[in-house]
Structure formats: C-alpha cells, structure tokens
Amino acid sequence: MKPRDLAELLLLGALWGGSFLFMRMGAVEFGPIALVFVRVAGAAALLLPILAMQGQWPALRRHWRPIALLGVFNSALPFLCFAVAAYALSAGLMGVFNATAPIWTALIAWWWLGDRPAPLRAIGLAIGLAGAVGLAWSRASVKEGLAGVTPALGIAACVAATVLYGLSANYSRRRLAGVPPMATAAGSQLSAALVLALPALWAWPAQPPSGAAWAGATALALLCTGLAYILYFRLIAHTGATNAMTVTFLIPAFAMAWGWMVLAERPGWDMLAGTAVILLGTALTIGLLKWPTKASTSGAVSGSG
C-alpha cells in the first residue's frame, strides 16, 4: 500500500471501530429503531448527491430491487441488532464479535453457493468459531441491564448481525456483481431509511435526546457510515478487496481503544484472548495467512544466502 492508502485504511478502522462507541452513546436516549433510522437516513443524505455527481443513478434504477433488499439485510437489521446489543455490551466487545463476519460469510458461501473452503481455510473457520464461542461463554451473563437487555441477549444480537452480514455478502456476490459500488452503498442506505421511517416515527423518544446523543448519532451517520463507505470503496479500487478487508483486524482494536478512552471500558484478559483467536481464524479464513509453498520456501533459503 502507498502511505495514503495506509492512512485511509487506519482512518476507516477508526471510523468503523468508533461506530460501536457512538451506538453506546445514542442507543439509550434514541432507542434502537430511531437511532438506526438517523444513521441510515444521514448516510443516504451524504451518499446520494455523490451518486448523482458520478452519474450512477441509472445503475441504481436498473438494480433497485436487489439493492433495496440488501439495504434491509446489510444495514437496517444488523444495525438494529448492534443497537440492541449496545444496551448491555461494551463497545470493544461488540467490535470483537463484528470481526467474525468474514467467518460467517465463508460458512454461508459453503452452505449456499457450494463454495467449499480449502483445508487451511476450514481450519480457520473452526478456530474463529471456537474463539467466538469461548468469548461468548465467558461473557454471556443473564443479569438484566438497560431496557431489560442481558449480556447473553446482546451477544446473540451481535451474532445475528454478523450472520446477516454474511448472508448479504453472498447475496451481493450473486445478484449485484458488476453494479457500481456507490449505487449499492447509497441505494442500500436509502432503502434502509425508507423501511425504518414509519417504525422510527412510532418509536421516536418522547423525551428529546440530548445534544451529546445527537452528536453521537450524527457522527454515526455521516462519519461511521457515509464517509466510511466512501473510504472503503476507494481502498478496494486502489489496493484490491483483500487489502481493504484487512480493516477487519483494525476494528476491534479501535473499538476497544475508543471504549476505554471515552467510556472507561477496560477489556479483560478473556476478551483479549478471544480477540486473538477470532482474528487468527479470520486471517486463515480470508486467506491472509497461508502455508508456505515449496517455491516460497526455496526462495527464502536462497535469499538468505
């Protein structure tokens, strides 16, 4: 990567890691439905003018049905799941469970598309799932927290969100291959906003949210969703999908850092250990770690001489 690409990758990790902090800040005062509506509506308001400037409206009109469905399953529902989890889980813990999304993507591709993983990737799936199960087991308390949400329910909501991400990734692969990324990003946020508009009106908080809650919701919409999509697709264009996916490994670190600095959430040793196991499994699953080949081994030997 060029220095500019690396800087954008770090910024993207900081933004997506920060999304869990802003959900923690806004979920209580807004409620999950209203908060997610503000998030997707604000992101759509940022992305749609860019879509128009790039001349990609025809692509959105042509593919509006699959894009609309993607908006429900890749934005509205998983964002709601994480907003519910924010009642009971730390920002860092939500970020760690979010890192299992590539594992679910690979499992669903195996089950749905018959995309059988190579042996090393299958080992990665097993390792990543073991790390997620172990971390969930250590943190799944049934003690009720805010709005009656227990840590166990919060963890289940995080897992549901990442499974939805996995389904959406494979659906996009089948139905939206070749569609301009900005059309998919802007259209999916618009779709999510339209789906949530009436529920958000019904669930809008009787007590007006504070300025701090509005600041968090605005940052969630414009920075962690709108700007983050722009950065992500720029990285794919400049460095390739595999390099862009390395942001998966930055999100838990930034989520824990933001939660620690702003909300004084200290990660325990079980959380750090679970994170390491999950990220190892994810690295194997997406192919970032591979067995050394015969050619690479001989090259390393000759180079050392």
Walk me through the structure:
It is built from 14 helices and no strands. The protein has 305 residues and is mainly alpha-helical. The chain has one domain.
Name the average pLDDT.
Answer: 88
Oligomer description: single chain
How many helices does DSSP assign?
14
Total domain units = 1
Structural class, from helix and strand content?
mainly alpha
End-to-end gap = 28 Å
Overall, the morphology is globular
Question: Could you name the ranges where pLDDT drops below 50 across 5 or more consecutive residues?
Answer: 295-305
Share of β-strand residues: under 5%
Question: What is the N-to-C succession of helices and strands?
Answer: HHHHHHHHHHHHHH
How many distinct beta strands? 0
Q: Biggest sheet, in brief?
A: none
| Share of residues in helices | over 70%
Work out the radius of gyration.
20 Å
Per-chain topology:
Elements: H1 3-30, H2 32-53, H3 57-62, H4 64-85, H5 91-98, H6 101-113, H7 119-139, H8 151-175, H9 181-203, H10 211-239, H11 241-245, H12 251-263, H13 269-285, H14 294-304
